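Notebook, p. 212. Picked up where the previous page left off. The plan for this session was modest: take the two constructs that came back from the sequencing core last week, fold each one, and keep the raw output in the notebook itself so nobody has to go hunting through shared drives later. Recording the first one now, exactly as returned: residue sequence, then the structure token string.
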Amino acid sequence: HHRLLGRQRRGEGQHDDAAVPSRRRLTMVFSDIVGFSDTADELEPEDLSLLLNEYLAEMATIAEKYEATIDKFVGDAVICFFGAPTATDDRDQAHRAVRMALEMNERVADLDVSWRKFGASRPLRIRIGVNTGIANVGSFGSQRRMDYTAIGRQVNLAARLEASCEPGNV
């Protein structure tokens, strides 16, 4: 009864074809709040939780509008991609990703008012990195916990672009 982790026979477990890792051309989008740690130090945890959840909900709504696949939220970071599980062409992916990113930046300007009312002294600004390239996408993890995500150097490049982006830009 020895089985390698992650190896499943057809019909066993909850693996579907979209979850099996495969090489795909994706447009990755990484965003985060500039100076979030400093803002977190200024606010009460309950207020911070309320504001962060409002922000993440607004970003998710915009991502869904452009049919992005939301990969995950990591603290204040939003990671999503285009091109999986439903593949589209590079041009479509890139256009939707950039339009989504621009709308996210616009929405943040509105949310900034709420953050200031709760005592944040810094303006709410985000930075966003976008990159199109080949990645491996599918379910990764263990038998107990799997995440549908993308990995590879093109994913890392999107993260590096986001980290070097000027606040309020894409």
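Okay, moving on. Second construct, recorded in the same format:
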Amino acid sequence: EPNLVHDQLGQKRPIPKNGGKKIEFRRYKALAKAMTAITEGVTPAGNSLTVTTKEATVKQYGDFIEFSDVIDVVGIDPVLTEGAEVLGEQAGLTIDTVMRDAFCKGTNVQYANGKTAQTIAAADVINGTDVRKMVRTLRKNNVKPINGYYICIIDPEIAFDLQNDADWKTVNQYNRGGEAIYEGEIGKLFGVKFIETTNLLIKEDQGASSAYVDTHCALCFGQGAFGMADVEGQGATKPRIIVKPTGSAGTADPLNQRSTEGWKTMFACTILDNLAVVRYECAVSA
């Protein structure tokens, strides 16, 4: 199963039960420089805070599987237990993919080797210069690092190309147990920590029409990039498992032939600040 990493990286906000379907994330804009000197004895005009808001609406996701009473009687495997594991894997992948797709909708995009989406080619793989460009973009936007580092989500194929850089450091080279390690963290380069997942967004048949390539979409970001919300008791991190035994459906199942097992969750996720995240698109080595 894919390594699921997206839910550890956003601002989390709970919605109380019976608190509605929408949540509002609020951000205060920085004040302009106060360049006018204050006159002695005269109160200046002062300033006021400017608030920007980002609204997200929670949506519900879920699925179930059905068992027959025959399986309960003659089945060799512990079907209910096995079903719960399969459903749990499906729930985790679904939630992670919904988050991934929401986080990849940003407008701040960088393509490998300075190309565009229309001109990217098979040789346009990630390199140290492109990493430094992402860092430069975030720093120019005054995006604060997270615990001293920007974070970038990549997949094993991007990691393979990135590890060719002479300055690449693996986790065991820089972390001696003194700081927390992210789920999936594999190394760092130029002030960026890299987190690996196999559930990265891949766009098929991009670039020049004469030589289409699949582009892999990495996410490099700092503080305040993403927001996530769930309803109390319906959280994305702990989907509800729902079991309906045979006989529980009443007249809809008159012979007690069917039971079901499923999961359900309700949450929302969104980009909070497009300036705080760079979507980096590149090809990968064959």
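Notes on construct two before I forget. The two ends are 23 Å apart (CA to CA).
Flagging for discussion at group meeting.
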